[in-house]
């Protein structure tokens, strides 16, 4: 796709063919260019043609797919639920791109379309076509789809089921009653209105009826029996019990069932997903198993096969019923799933949800009750409601709907600068769940993967109550600060009342994931890019957390409902609308609540729930609670001039030495004070145009919230109050968590007032200002619940401010006198956190119970636990510094201390955890990464490092240490002061002795017939006779150079011999590099018809006359400042690197072992022989010489390793292939007979000169 776009760019801008490569390399990103350069190395990308560059990138990024895999995906693709024909055809064409169908493409597309289409009627229609082509199949399918949609719209337009509210007229009274009059035998009237009520029967002579209706008449009794028989209702299948399922049913024989019930208006109906089908079932707690009639079975599961039923059923009246069979089914309901049995019977009636399903699937009774008709006397019965909902079942289908013809637009300030935030690390414990959620959202079209974006918002995964995760973008750090927030006015209470007045019954429809049903304009999607560990994704729908989302949604909903009488929308709660959640909808309610007011058939009323926290506040139990209550009342004393007189009995209880006694006068003052606070003098009505402030606080046993308006004079007038007690789990929260809970609960409690409007949060807990700041991102180390709450608040437009406790008395008083009970949402919140936390703990080598127990026993952690729960003091800062600096990130859960998502492990259990982390010997980095997903304690990183260093197995498989920084040889003061020698070969059947002067870089090369020490001495003696004796000779450790004869030759001539560390040729780099140049030159002259001697002379002639980088030319030696020039360049080469590692004498190390399978051998540093060289002792009387790059510091001592037989000699292999296999050399310890003291500044020390021994001639 990128190639197609760049081709279009070339065409649009008339880019010349010769400039295409330059334009392409300038347009691609830095990472793409780095990748391209790596793929084309050593050739630079600019040297390639445009077509070659495209070919290289395509082969790497988009390799040719496997044909069989592509065809498999194509033939497995069926139409998804809710997917249009056009979208399905487009997806099939996309999947066929790499299938290589050739001329048979249209046939393959036609076959897949017919086989994969969901609508059975359309599929049957296509199968009837004899000569069906792909084009014809698409036209037929689209036409039938359009016709079905138009038919629904026409019917809904005529009947006004969805978007219109029809006027319901009272039905006229019929002239005939369904019941006959017992006085005359006719219908149409009641017995007390019958004109024969005073007549005398001629049959029985009794007053009150006539002969025709006399009950003593046989013919009348027969007519009455037939009449009742004709009106007999069907028996509904109800109770099924099994002896092995429930002990309470052990008295029943086989399977016993059935209860007669004819009143369908009181039935409870559920709509689970059974094998993917939405089935309407009646809840029957008296039924031991779940059953379905044969008719419904054939309707939903026509092709399914039944298994024989092992049981028999019978009604409670004893009537036997033989089931047709039993079918194992997969049932999904409210984010729950179970494998259950469903019995099929021949009788009619609705499907029953029995006790066997109730044991496996839990029901939300609050939601169930909200779905029932509020007024049982209403003419609109539950059955009629179900009929209406069945006609609109498309609205309640699972999945996310799409709002048609309206798209959201995100607008930023003109000065906005793109912000690209890196992806936040995802703990290993939830990484798989995050990836699954990303794949799900991408499959549903909510997200689309992108390769590049100037904007990127980090994603924070939060745990859901079902154990999965929800992905939330932290838009506070990206677009929200520069967003031009939509200022669309929310409806006022007067507008809603004017619209809904006169209504008798009210319904609320709650949209399923409302925001995600609105698509975003293409230009705005770039702002909704999120950054994950899997790369960049872009939202295609409106998402929670964007500051302008409420106003965008409100505007769209009012456009949808425009022209529909009797409807109103407030954010995601609308009255008739889009795809909705049936379990959260309310139908035919007699009252509806909005912003502190109740609307019913009689009009508008003040809602008493907003004052319930004050009206039902319990009386204080001690002085502390009384002080909190008085502080709460005095907060509004400016509006209550006579408050002091009313509170006098309560103030008297606070006097020093006064015994606590709650008298009648105290109770009277307490109740009077509450009435004053709830009076119109203090309270004010909600006004969306005035600033709103929400003050929240928490005590050890309750939370409270006060919603207020800030008036023009700066005073606060309360709108509503709320409080509740903490649950058992919440009481164990850390103090910071309780304070945060009060804020989140307060926002949820007053959501109708706050959502979509800018408001101010007030707290007396200062750390929350940084965690919940709208200008800051969600803290990475915060507890899981704290991250979830921060993301929830991030979807609102708010500011947060700190107020000291003494000035925070209004919310503080409510939190210390809370109402009993806690909300359902809190229970779910705790459950969600418990599920996530327990998964972490059970995956650890210790259990949650063990951590709880040891935390209580440990003297340090027990005090940290208490401080986290009740609050930290200044004295604890010095006692627990590492915990104190993390105090705002610590939380409590299940008796354990949590730091973010990580469990704080007590000291007694840390060894077990470390052993578990070390299982598999993953190394330090992997162990730390794994630990950071689950556990923490002070010093855990150092302990992990120590554990890895003490493990002999880990140390013996370690890689080579990081190369030491470059250490250059000292620049010689004059030519031929230091020379470097080495053997080159065997090469082309010859071996050469190479000698290079360190100062002038003058090379000498000798063709050696033999490479013995004697022959080497002879060549060097001849060389020294012509050039003079050098001060130093540098070589490697080949046998010729370390032989005693060669060493004697150098000592007699006063030459200091320096050898490189074994297997470290870089020390003798000057000679090694020249050997490489020599070999390359001789290889290049292979085809020249001259002798080897001539080739060698030609090479040396050219090399000696070539310009050398540091010296310019060999004839430039006479120029001044030469030494400074070289030293400056050496300094530039060595600066900027890391500090050289140094080892102390006696420290334990691992020395590189070149002898066999053992990569490292434990040793001790014995002596430092140079700036980068050491002598180490590997066994008694056995030493090795090693470069710093061949040594690693280790805690594994020689005593902890099995004794290995060590040879006192180390085999040495020359990089130039001159070593005889049987030759060995003892570790180098040779030094001049009168060496100078060791000095670290230079590479080697200056020595005292002594007269040569006449070249030993």
Automatic annotation (TrEMBL):
The Integrase catalytic domain, residue ranges: 971-1128
Top-level taxon in the UniProt lineage: Eukaryota
Keywords, sorted A to Z: Endonuclease, Hydrolase, Metal-binding, Nuclease, Nucleotidyltransferase, RNA-directed DNA polymerase, Transferase, Zinc, Zinc-finger
Gene Ontology biological process terms in this record: DNA integration; proteolysis
EC numbers, comma separated: 2.7.7.49, 3.1.26.4
Biased composition (Polar residues): 1213-1222
Keyword Ribonucleoprotein part of the UniProt annotation: no
Domain named CCHC-type: residues: 181-195, 201-216
Region (Disordered): 1207-1237
One term of GO molecular function: zinc ion binding
UniProt family annotation: Belongs to the beta type-B retroviral polymerase family. HERV class-II K(HML-2) pol subfamily.
Name of the protein this chain belongs to: Gypsy retrotransposon integrase-like protein 1
Organism: Triplophysa rosa
